[in-house]
Structures are given as structure tokens and as C-alpha cells.
Amino acid sequence: MAALGQPVMVEGTLIVETISEAQRRHYASDAGATSAEIDKIVGSTTQVRIASGAAHVEGIEVTPES
Hints:
23% of the residues lie in helices and 38% in strands. With 66 residues, it is of the alpha+beta class.
């Protein structure tokens, strides 16, 4: 949480995927969403993720204990 709002340098492979409405509803169900919450999910969405990546957040020191 200390990284929220901090500049980040990221290295890896950028993957852009379309998540279908059915997949979104399935994921919400698996996460324990209520029927009312699942019913509000309409349409697909785009998900952007980084595979095999590494990130450095300015001002955040990572130690083996953290």
C-alpha cells in the first residue's frame, strides 16, 4: 500500500486481453460477489497486465523481511 500513487518503472511483456461478460461474471462469483453484484456486470472489458515483469517503485525500499 505504500506504493499507491508513486512513480513506477516496469519491465516485462505487456499483455492486453479482452475479458468477456461471462468470464467477468464467473470471476466475480468465484470472488464471492452477491447475485445483485453479478447482475450489474454488463459487457466485456479490457485487462492490461505485465508478464514476467519486474517493477521498481520510487521511494520504496524492499528488504528481505518485508
